Each structure stands twice: as structure tokens, then as C-alpha cells.
What we know:
Blueprint lengths: L1 E6 L4 E9 L5 E10 L1 H5 L6 H23 L8 E7 L3 H18 L3 E5 H12 L6 E6 L4 E8 L2 E7 L5 H11 L6 H9 L24 H13 L5 H34 L4 E5 L6 H13 L3 E3 L3 H4 L3 H12 L19 H4 L6
Parallel strand pairs: 1-4, 4-5, 6-9, 9-10
Antiparallel strand pairs: 1-2, 2-3, 6-7, 7-8
Amino acid sequence: MRVLGLETTCDETSAAIVELSPDGSRRILSNRIRSQIAEHARFGGVVPEIAARAHVEILDRMIDDALKEAGITMTNLDGIAAAAGPGLIGGVLVGLTTGKALALALGKPLMAVNHLEAHALTPRLIEDIGFPYLLLLVSGGHTQLVAVEDVGKYRRLGTTIDDAIGEAFDKVAKMLSLGFPGGPAVERAAEKGDASRFALPRPLLGKPEPNFSLSGLKTALRLAAEAVQPLTEQDCADLCASFQAAIVDCVVDRTRMGIRAFRQQMGSPTALVVAGGVGANRPIRLALQRVAMEAGLKCLVPPPALCTDNGAMIAWAGIERLRRGMTDPLDFAARPRWPLDEAAAKPGARA
Ligand code: KG4
Ligand code: ZN
């Protein structure tokens, strides 16, 4: 089974082909990714209209390149998977419409994939792990602890009550003029910094509900930065190191509570799985491995290139859906908002 995956929900354009063999082995035949960082950098964030135009300009060529690299033609595909949300609507429309056109022209099934579901299922592309597992989804737009019970079956155990962790990294980087995207820049700066120099808060630490809160930490960092103006490179590194250490402490504590909530509600998970761009952060990865070990769980963090947005994860989610007969009609509407656990996302719902 071979599926083409298209990702255009934010600022990465990607086309990839993933193959599932009858013996269950999985192979990424190609995973072409082009980041639009250069286009957005001078604005300090992603500009939706620029993103949509940039996707249009290169997606067709990129699909060709992905097919060539995989050594196959369109007729060798068994289905087309396109991210149909959540994300910036202009970009989502580019990938989804392209996917629909290909599916229609080729007479192949379409899988309209939830981008978050693709992050959630990526660990199964690289390792044999069964359901249910605990997912820590940490990206630019989301910070959630989710019980992954099956393909299409998700229970949100906790979420951020304000900013996402990736967003907090991006804002801190902007505040300190470190550039965009912020996560990798803050991580790099932190390597040379003293994490004990600034005493920053650890919001929600010790609270039993596995939720996150970042805004107080971000404000505390801003106040600390303002108190030492003008900032030297070392001040900046110390601020980044102190910020990252606070995030690590929060992630550790919140994930421990997430494991506890999972066990209370549905027994033991098969693994702790980390997904989303922030999963590329080394200190966070290492801390989560420790949390999993002490809980007696396997910890799975996809390699950084599969943590950040990519087409292979969309193709793989497409395969997971196609093999279960979960295909979508060609009039499937793009969804700028599309929670994994729809029940939990309703106003007044549980955590
Ligand atoms: O999953 P992703 O590629 O895009 C979506 O948000 O869907 O995640 C991007 C986020 C950005 O906020 C970026 O700053 C953050 O992931 N990120 C990192 C690192 N690499 C990317 N955050 C911390 N450390 C990193 N090394
Ligand atoms: Zn993402």
C-alpha cells in the first residue's frame, strides 16, 4: 500500500510517499519538505496569505519530485492523503484541493487527514506500538496530553489554558530578538546559559489535572529581561536557559500527572509518545525519557524531522485510515479548527 501525503497547513510545504508492506513493515520512500521560514522571517511570524501563495507555487513540482525520488508514478499510488486542517485556511485549501484533484483524476481514494491525528500516529510509522498510548502533543498551536485509543479515537486528558509551548518559545525568541522560528533559537542560546540565574515560575506545578499554563512564565521572563536592559549576549543565554529549565520542569510534572490520569481512567498506556515541533527540543526529549522510565513506560519521540510538520506523517495517517476503510468524499470541507477530541473541545466540557 502506497500513499501520497500532502502537508500545507502552516509554513511547511511537503509531499511524501509512504509504503506499507504486507509483512507490516513501513518505509518512507520520499519526504520532500520546503520550509517558508525565509518568507516569513522579516514579519516575525507566519503571514497566512504569503503562506498560501508559497504553497501554490511549489506544491505541483514538489509532488513530481516526491514521485521521482520514490521511483514510482501516480498510477502506483493506492490513495491520496491531504491535511484538511486544523491550520491556516488558505494553505489547507491548497493541499486539500490538490489532493482531491489527484484523487478524482486517478480514481483513487482520498483521505482528508487531521494534521493533529497525523502527529499523533507518527510514532507508529517508526515503531510497532499498540493502542492505547499517551501522547504529549507539543507544537506551535497545541499543547495537549491525549489518550490515543485507536485511529480516530482520542481522549484529551489535559490542555493548555493559555499559550502553546511552541508559541511561548516563539514569543520569547521574538522578545529577545533571536529570530524566527523561536524554538531552535532559544534552545541554541540556552546551551551557553546559566539556568539558575533567573528564578522563574513553574505554573500549575503539582496540580492533579494535567493542564498547562505558559502565560505567567512568559510574563515573568519579560519582566526579568526588562530588569537587566541592555541585554548582553550572556544575559540572553541565561534568560533562555532559565526559561527552558522552567518549561522542562512543567512538562515533566504535567506529563507525570497525565500518566496518572491515564492509569486512573483506562489502565496502563503502552507507551509515552511525544509529537509536534517542540519534540525536537533535546532537553525536553531527555526529560520525557526520564519521566517514562520512572513510570515503567517505553518512550517514543520521533526524530526531529518527523516531529516538525512533514508530508510523511500525513501519508502515514492516510495509510492508517485507508487500511481501515476510512476514506473521505471529494466534497470534504477544509477545517481551520478541528480538535482531536471533539467532545472535550466543546465549551463547558471536561478538561
Ligand atoms: O509541529 P510544528 O512544526 O508546527 C505546528 O505548530 O503544527 O511545531 C512548530 C513549533 C514552533 O513553535 C517552534 O518554535 C517549535 O515547534 N519548535 C521548537 C523546537 N523546534 C521547533 N521548540 C523548542 N525547541 C526546539 N528545538
Ligand atoms: Zn504540526
